[in-house]
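FORM 7B - TANDEM STRUCTURE REPORT

SECTION 1: FIRST PROTEIN
SEQUENCE AND TOKENS:
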Amino acid sequence: MTNSQSKTTPSSDGPRTVPSRVIVPVIGLERFKHGALERGQYLTVKLRADPTDSASVTHDFAVPFFRDGSPEEWLLFRKNLRRVFRGQNLTNGPSQYQMARSLLEGETLSFFDTKATAYLNETVDNM
């Protein structure tokens, strides 16, 4: 009796049965695209090319608010958040927590605040 999910593959010894398993990726193979963001769906922040130099060139960076979404959307949000931390030279915990709170919405913000309260200290290590 063979597995209904098995398939026959050729080999030098003759055909053999190899189980074929369907693995569903956590993050889909199609890339997430934001599309056009409308006013009120993002926060525009000024980032510096050299965050420690107040005379360095600045550029605007639009960061979409995060309410809920797929794991890929969360990873993209975290990437953008780290970029904001670097570009605005947010090196201490309280400033990073404040920026995160300004970009999170809804249940995600509530969950973030609950976890932040549980840690007691707003430090970079707890971020």
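SECTION 2: SECOND PROTEIN
SEQUENCE AND TOKENS:
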Amino acid sequence: MYVFVCKPLKIPEIFQEYVVVDTNNLVLSTPDSYRNAHPSEKDKYCNGCGVKFFNVPDWLGVNCCITEACYIHDWMYKVSGDWDRKEADELFYDNMRAIVNHTTDSWFLRNVRNVRALYYYLAVRLFGKPHFKGAR
């Protein structure tokens, strides 16, 4: 069984110990509060990619669903914790890249999907500030 572990490149050390495992044995970084939250609590804060009035696809390509990365990002935007907006956005980008690298064999498609992940990252950096409710 193949297990891919995403090691954040730019994320502070406090996030390197937090992980959540999805059904495909993919390991994503996440705060403890998200990992320990009840599903109904997650439903209250997490809506997937985009905002209520502007939905964005949760797919970077066939078999490359980034919904879990979006849920973690939503959680970090809406639940107070020991992180700032930039850390939440960088964790989002690292988790999307982990999903791409885990689900994509073709080097060409991997690069295309990583560019799309970069677009998602840039969008949250440019337009996410009004939606961030974190502690810092």
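SECTION 3: OBSERVATIONS ON SECOND PROTEIN
The longest helix spans residues 107-127.
The beta strands are 4-5, 19-21, 26-29, 50-51, 54-55.

SECTION 4: SIGNATURE
Preparer initials: ____
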